[in-house]
Design goal:
The chain has 13 helices and no strands. By secondary structure, the chain is mostly helical. The protein has one domain. Helix 6 packs across helix 8. The two termini are 28 Å apart.
């Protein structure tokens, strides 16, 4: 039950990131946006874990897992996430993000050899329907009006990296605390953006508005340090395949936070949200002994 709480809180903050990223990208390019996000995130994690910072021995022992999860999974996701948001709508991006549970299940099956049971598939289908209904605003005929472009492809690539991130957390974060693993993988991401920063044409920070800094604080402290920390704790307990279904909460969270950004909610938000919640609960049902996992 505690892992469920961790995963839901994490995905709520990840949903908020869509709105905060849009605010940040109005004033800076995607490289600087990533730099500020992880600078605030890493500093927050250092403050939270000041008394339990990782030793060089722990880092050396877990270097492979930290590097894969941080430089490939996390950094790769953020590069294509920010680039994608510059080139596509939030509607298309949210639809593609809703595919994450399926991608995570596939990678978990291939890399971790976790079985896929029929209950999980049913739960994912119901949750995906809820996400689709939400994004299509309750009108299924809108499906034919969605046009996938360059930005959509970038979000899809980001989604693949994030699914790998989930699997690697489960595989490698076994001999290190969740807080330290989150700190070190986030630091890898910060280093990645630091390497790219000289080519970004970064301007003086005094030109940024107060809205920019509020958004940076939110996406760094809440949407990065706290969200990734809680997510990794949840993945460690439940496994990447089961945790992946919670990514369907992200579009719902983004819709609810829309109220704060002067947008309206409609009946299709309620229907879609109920389907997402139902899918989450169904996917957590233990299959009967007679139920056979798919190999």
């Amino acid at each position: 039950m505690r892992a469920t709480f961790y995963l839901i809180i994490a995905t709520i903050f990840l949903g908020l990131n869509f709105h905060l990223a849009k605010i940040i990208l109005k004033e800076v390019n995607f490289i600087e946006a990533g730099f500020w996000r992880f600078l605030f995130g890493v500093v927050t994690l250092i403050v939270l874990g000041a008394k339990r910072l990782p030793t060089f021995k722990i880092i050396r022992k877990n270097l492979k897992g930290i590097s894969l999860t941080g430089f490939v999974g996390l950094f790769g996701f953020n590069i294509f996430f920010f680039l994608g948001l510059l080139n596509t709508s939030a509607v298309n991006a949210a639809l593609i993000v809703s595919l994450n549970p399926s991608l995570t299940m596939i990678f978990s099956h291939k890399i971790l050899k976790t079985p896929i049971n029929k209950i999980q598939i049913i739960g994912i289908i119901i949750a995906f329907f809820g996400v689709s209904y939400l994004i299509l605003k309750g009108n299924l005929t809108n499906l034919g009006n969605i046009e996938f472009n360059y930005g959509d492809i970038l979000i899809l690539i980001a989604n693949i990296f994030f699914a790998l991130h989930h699997v690697w957390v489960k595989k490698y974060a076994t001999t290190i605390s969740s807080l330290n693993f989150t700190l070190l993988t986030s630091f890898c991401c910060l280093v990645g953006f630091l390497i790219l920063l000289p080519i970004s044409g970064m301007e003086t920070i005094t030109t940024h508005t107060s809205n920019f800094w509020v958004a940076v604080f939110g996406i760094g402290c809440l949407g990065t340090s706290l969200a990734y920390f809680l997510w990794q704790k949840g993945v460690q307990v439940t496994g990447a395949d089961k945790a992946g279904i919670y990514m369907n909460v992200v579009p719902l969270s983004a819709a609810l936070f829309a109220i704060l950004f002067k947008e309206y909610l409609h009946n299709y938000h309620l229907v879609g949200g109920l389907c997402i919640v139902a899918g989450l609960f169904i996917s957590k049902i233990n299959p009967s002994k007679s139920s056979k996992a798919l190999s």
